[in-house]
């Protein structure tokens, strides 16, 4: 392997669509008729491959550091800054966060959607996004800290409850 490789077997990565997964091995796969070395990544629900030569793929990034997880926790505990009832706003924001894949933005969206849930019923898209992004935070947090998701879930829920309790404060 070249010295410019940022990923290797055993690394945890995050795909903007598939979520958190671990690089299991390198396999040769046919891509556009050419044999290409690819990382095989296993997530909770799926397997995907990406070329070893495509390590700057914008859809894939390393799992968050402990410092990022600490910032995520702080974001989740803060008072929601957005109390917008416009469903088009939320749809666009969900799509932007899905495309961007930044864990800090994901944590803000989880906090804000959780607050919206107190103020009004979420539609199916919002509800599905909230659950999806909560799971992504849990899986990335667990991968980073080597803790079990079930150990982290109550902490995540406490953080969200703290934010929800601040709706009428200030």
Can you put this structure into words, describing what you see?
With 170 residues, this protein is of the alpha+beta class. The chain folds into two domains: 12-62, Thrombin, subunit H (Beta Barrel), CATH 2.40.10.170; 66-164, Methane Monooxygenase Hydroxylase, Chain G, domain 1. The protein is built from five helices and five strands. It has a five-stranded antiparallel sheet with strand order 4-3-2-1-5. Helix 2 (87-100) packs antiparallel against helix 3 and helix 4 (124-145) crosses helix 5. The longest helix is centred in the C-terminal third of the chain and has 22 residues, at 124-145. It is elongated, with a radius of gyration of 18 Å. It starts with 11 loop residues before the first strand and ends in a 6-residue tail after the last helix.
Topology, pairings included?
Blueprint: E1 12-15, E2 19-31, E3 34-43, E4 47-51, E5 60-62, H1 66-77, H2 87-100, H3 103-119, H4 124-145, H5 149-164
Outline:
The protein folds into 2 domains: 12-62, Thrombin, subunit H, CATH 2.40.10.170; 66-164, Methane Monooxygenase Hydroxylase, Chain G, domain 1 (Up-down Bundle), CATH 1.20.58. The protein is built from 5 helices and 5 strands, in the order E-E-E-E-E-H-H-H-H-H.
Attribute tags:
Methane Monooxygenase Hydroxylase, Chain G, domain 1; 48% helix; 170 residues
């Amino acid at each position: 392997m070249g010295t410019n490789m940022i990923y290797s077997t055993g690394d945890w990565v995050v795909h903007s669509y598939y979520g958190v997964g671990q690089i299991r091995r390198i396999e040769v796969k046919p891509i556009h008729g050419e044999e290409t070395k690819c990382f095989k990544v296993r997530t909770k629900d799926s397997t995907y491959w990406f070329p070893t030569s495509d390590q700057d793929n914008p859809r894939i990034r390393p799992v968050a550091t402990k410092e990022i997880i600490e910032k995520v926790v702080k974001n989740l505990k803060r008072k929601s800054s957005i109390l917008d009832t416009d469903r088009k706003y939320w749809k666009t924001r969900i799509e932007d966060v899905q495309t961007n894949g930044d864990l800090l933005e994901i944590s803000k969206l989880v906090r804000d959607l959780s607050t919206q849930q107190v103020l009004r019923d979420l539609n199916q898209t919002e509800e599905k996004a909230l659950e999806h992004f909560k799971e992504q935070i849990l899986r990335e947090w667990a991968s980073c800290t080597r803790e079990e998701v079930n150990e982290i879930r109550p902490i995540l829920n406490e953080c969200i409850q703290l934010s929800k309790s601040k709706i009428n404060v200030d």
